[in-house]
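Hi there,

I know you've been waiting on this one. I reran it after we fixed the sequence typo, so this is the corrected version. Both the input and the resulting structure follow.
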Amino acid sequence: MTAGEVSPPAAATGPAPRAVHGPFSTRQLLRLDQALRVADGSTGLTFSVYVGELDEPVRGHAEKLHGQLADPARSVLLAVSPNQRLLEIVTGAEARKRIPDRAAKLAALSMTAAFTGGDLAGGIVIGLDQLASHAGRAADRV
């Protein structure tokens, strides 16, 4: 997940480091990292998050980003553009067998509700959790 650079650690008496040039605080980045690790570990799929501008056509741009992942067939990409108020969820061929479009649309609805309330990080965490829950454990799917 790429969400901006992190400033160098402050002195022991200084303030906690915060994300620079990105929409997330350090605490939110840690929360997103944990959600990604849990989703990956529990499902055997690879979940990724892109936050930034999406070129037109939006779906095509999200699919291009997804295609650049290490194992696109087993990957799920959540592409979020807060400024454009856009969200795309792209699933690879193997991931789609476990996360059908209906499940992705339900996750998108929950994410959008959180985004509307001003909680970008929380919406992404909710989406990751719902998608991973629907995919189930890797061992359950063999």
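Quick highlight: DSSP finds five helices and five strands in the chain.

Best,
R. S.
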